[in-house]
Amino acid sequence: MVRYRRNFLAGGTFFLTATLADRSSHLLVEQIAALRSAVKQTRKQHPFTIDAAVILPDHLHVLITLPLDDADFSNRVSLIKRRFTTTTLNAGAAAKRLPNGEIALWQRRFWEHTIRDEKDFEQHVNYIHFNPVKHRLVSRVHDWPHSSFHRYVRLGILPPDWAGDATQGNSGFGEPSR
């Protein structure tokens, strides 16, 4: 059996995806303040830069850059997931338990991709920002509130109408629609 190996690169930039165990859940957007708090607490202890992010009802995508002397993105993801779980369970959210008693709010693993170059970075930022449209949560990127897209607009990096309107057939980013 081949063991999966993560690419630990000090100072690297990584595209990360973490997903709730219940794909029909809306907990991440319903408890957005708890998620933001978990990220803030983790960044305070283990700094990283958020280059782009989007929070959807059941999963999140984030592009982060680590400090030059640090390669431990796994611990950061683990801490964010654990802190969010603790806060939401204390607030009364329901979560299934595995036979061993472990809380199953999140899928056990997470997806990670090491950004290779500027083109790869840009493609992943575009994927992140377009994701709410891909999942048919909104028809325009600008309409999804839980996205770094709005920061990109404020900074003048992207125009407010970037990627157009999906109802007009302008959906050329990310994975093919199903």
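(the above was protein one; protein two follows)
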Amino acid sequence: MQHLFSILPTYILLTLALQAAPEPKYLAVGEGVPSVSVRTEAGVEVKLSDAIGGKPTVLIFYRGGWCPFCTRHLAALAEAEPELTAAGFQLLAISPDQSAKLRAKPSHQKLPYTLFSDSEMKAARAFGIAFKVDDALVGKYKNDYGIDLEGDSGQTHHLLPYPAVFIVDHTGIIRFVHVNPDYKVRLSPGEIIAAARGALATKE
């Protein structure tokens, strides 16, 4: 089966970047992790603060398993995880996919780090990175390209997160933020590792 990235036309890859969407007003460096819950792969609700568990953490927000840019980024991060672990960080990735969909893709089954479901988009909204996809585009995704946002999330809110990286210290304070409404722009694993080390150095 061809990779989704190779078969989607330019139109579908560019639409989300080009559609009108408000600039995100996301949480800034120095602010604390919001009091929100996410769900594990088994569907168990957990507080994000408990998932962080007093450990320096790299939080990745991605659009979902259907997104080829996200899939490639998550795979690259898997290769960088040992270095992040050696630096004292854990890696957590959050998407709107419902729990049962988090590992649906074979490539996601191989990811060594924790995936969380934010199907109700409470975490993304609390972090200030949620935006609404136009209803007509949601229908076009499903009917023309087989991308079912409602089926993946189990919700009808039509919300997605801007891809984002939040680096949090052991106290739950945000020490680094990268958010870009252009879903094609992602930090490389090397940039994330450098940012994580820099965040700890700044804290110290």
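Reviewer note on protein two: The domain at 33-203 is CATH 3.40.30.10 (Glutaredoxin).
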